[in-house]
Design a protein that fits this description.
Blueprint (H helix, E strand, L loop, with lengths): L2 H6 L13 E5 L15 H14 L3 E4 L3 E2 L11 E5 L6 H13 L3 E6 L9 H7 L13 E3 L21 E3 L5 E4 L14 H17 L3 E4 L40 H13 L6 E4 L6 H5 L9 E2 L2 H4 L5 H17 L5 E3 L8 H4 L21 H15 L5 E5 L20 H5 L39 H4 L1 H4 L6 H14 L7 E3 L6 E6 L2 E6 L12 E4 L13 E6 L2
Parallel strand pairs: 1-2, 1-13, 2-5, 5-9, 9-10, 10-11, 12-13
Antiparallel strand pairs: 3-4, 6-8, 7-8, 14-15, 15-16, 16-18, 17-18
Helix pairs in contact: 2-3, 5-6
Length: 553
């Protein structure tokens, strides 16, 4: 079934399915391993799609599975039009897509336009061509400074640590890489780059994908002249709640032309294809510019992800988020975790609940696992009751915690290596999923191999331990997703309700939502509980760190 057929066979609002969709992020290396080599793959995903359909999500977003030397787990693409053998083949992709569509799931793929791999044909050509040659013009090669060109062209730092420039061996030039040295930044002012990416979009649209998640969407254009920047660069600024990617490499006006041209390409296709921006920009009004009517359809709401476990903060971020995108007519998204952040079930168990450390290791503060899980379950009922579109990160429906004691010898994140271990990195949220507690690799693959070791605690979270078990996190997500659909919460309207301090309370359609962020129980108004993250107390009160949906307005 094509996307077009999928849209036609659904309700009239299917044409804006992304306005209210729940989209599940699959991190292919860690979702399901079809061939037992320890790395997840496309056939593995295909096998598990019925699980996702039964969970009740609308769409799946796949992190990169393209040909890549895997210097940054696939976010370093050497061929945008092929599948890396680690993950399978193009035929495997087609089979996966077909099966997803058959099950009524849409599929969004990741597009990585800011940089290629150093093994991309263009970069190889550039390195083997002289300074000033046309082959170098597709990237940001510049002469060095200092008497002999021994110093980099400017003072920019890489997001993964160290300099953002590497010197070309045996040559006077340096090339820019905002991320790892194996991820050279493209020059988006070059017509070849623009043309090629439009072709890449068409390549995947022709195969039937329903949309794209656009990686580092705020980074493609750099300020003219690449001026020095003394500020700190980071994907996320967790401290103080605001992430402020100001600086000459971020959020430049020119990126919007690119998205307008891509939008025109998408609009040529039937079936309401969409794009979602990964843009760590602040304040929210800047983010709203990525989702204007002729640009992308959605942007990840990282302000929500960064919000601490605090009712006032939740209310404020929800109000702000709804207001700013409302002004441009776009839907809000809600996201709590992804493959770049410590899982929220662990963040909420820290002494500053919701703080965003750059990874956690055995030497760091260990989250209170039970408390973090309790809050994460409540947060799921908050997130899934909000109007707009929600993103889930694989494993959160199991309440999966971060692996917080992974030994350094297993780490693979380039950020860990480039900072000499100062940044612990993102491996802890990327550990392969547990499907069955009694099988090798907890059912991730047919053998015991897993590319990152799974902690013993994963057995408790395995799908088989939760499937059909009343009160399990998996069943909580299934019920919430079902009720969300039945009550059309994604297209609803939020109205705040009066409530006690420390409580987030609102009505959306036929549902009233109460989230108690306090460490003590609170009274609830009358009403039948439709879904609750914890059993209500005998006197009808809502327990500490818990949430409930009550029927009635
Ligand atoms: C991705 C990261 C990746 C980086 C460089 C991010 O936005 O989500 O996983 O390391 O871009 O591509």
């Amino acid at each position: 079934m094509t996307s077009q057929q999928l849209a036609r066979s659904e309700s009239p609002d299917a044409l804006t399915w992304w306005r209210h969709a729940v989209i599940y992020q699959v991190y292919p290396r860690s979702f399901a391993d079809g061939n037992g080599d320890g790395i997840g793959d496309l056939p593995g995903i295909t096998t598990r799609l019925p699980y996702l359909a039964a969970l009740g999500v609308d769409a799946v977003w796949l992190s990169p599975f393209y040909r890549s030397p895997q210097a940054d787990a696939g976010y370093d693409v050497s061929d945008y039009r092929d599948v890396d053998p680690l993950f399978g083949t193009l035929d495997d992709f087609d089979r996966m897509l077909q099966q997803a569509h058959r099950l009524g799931l849409r599929v969004i793929v990741d597009l990585v336009p800011n940089h290629t791999s150093d093994e991309h044909a263009w970069f190889r050509e550039a390195l083997s061509s002289p300074a000033g040659s046309p082959e170098r013009k597709r990237y940001l090669f510049r002469d060095g400074t200092g008497e002999y060109g021994e110093l980099p062209p400017n003072n920019w730092q890489s997001i993964f640590g160290g300099r953002a420039w590497s010197k070309v061996p045996g040559d006077s030039q340096w090339y820019l890489h905002l991320f790892d040295s194996r991820q050279p930044d493209l020059d988006w002012n070059h017509p070849d780059v623009r043309k090629d990416f439009e072709d890449v979009l068409r390549f995947w649209l022709d195969r039937g994908v329903d949309g794209f998640r656009v990686d580092v969407a705020h980074g493609l254009i750099k300020a003219e002249g690449l001026p020095d920047f003394a500020g700190h660069v980071a994907m996320v600024e967790g401290s103080g709640g605001a992430h402020s990617n100001h600086g000459p490499m971020w959020d430049q006006e020119g990126v919007h032309d690119i998205y307008r041209s891509w939008r025109r390409v998408l609009d040529e296709y039937p079936g309401d294809r969409m794009m979602v921006a990964e843009a760590w920009v602040h304040p929210p009004a800047r983010l709203a510019r990525y989702v204007r009517a002729d640009e992308m359809q959605q942007a990840f709401n990282f302000d929500y992800l960064l919000t601490h476990w605090n009712a006032d903060d939740f209310r404020a971020v929800i109000d702000r988020s709804l207001a700013v995108v409302g002004e441009v007519g776009a839907p809000t998204t809600w996201v709590m975790s992804n493959h770049d952040t410590v899982r929220h079930s662990s963040r909420y168990g820290l002494s500053i609940p919701g703080a965003r450390p750059r990874g956690i290791d055995a030497a760091g503060e260990q989250p209170d696992e039970a408390l973090g899980l309790r809050r994460a379950r409540a947060a799921a009922l908050l997130t899934l009751a909000l109007p707009g579109s929600a993103y889930l990160y694989q494993g959160e429906e199991l309440g999966l915690p971060e692996h917080t004691t992974l030994e350094a010898e297993h780490r693979q994140d380039p950020a860990f290596f480039r900072t000499g271990g100062a940044e612990i990195g993102r491996d802890g949220c990327r550990v392969p999923l547990p499907w069955h507690s009694d099988q090798p690799s907890y059912g991730f693959g047919s053998g015991s191999a897993t590319w990152l070791p799974q902690p013993a605690s994963f057995a408790r979270y395995a799908v088989n331990r939760q499937d059909g078990v009343a009160g399990s996190t998996l069943e909580l997500y299934r019920s919430a997703l079902k009720q969300r659909r039945v009550s059309a919460l994604g297209t609803g309207t939020l109205t705040w309700l009066a409530c006690a301090p420390g409580v987030v309370a609102f009505a959306n359609g036929p549902v009233r939502v109460f989230v108690n962020t306090n460490d003590y129980p609170v009274a609830l108004p009358d009403g039948r509980a439709i879904v609750a993250s914890e059993p209500l107390l005998a006197d009808g009160q809502l327990p500490a760190n818990a949430a409930v949906w009550l029927a009635g307005t």
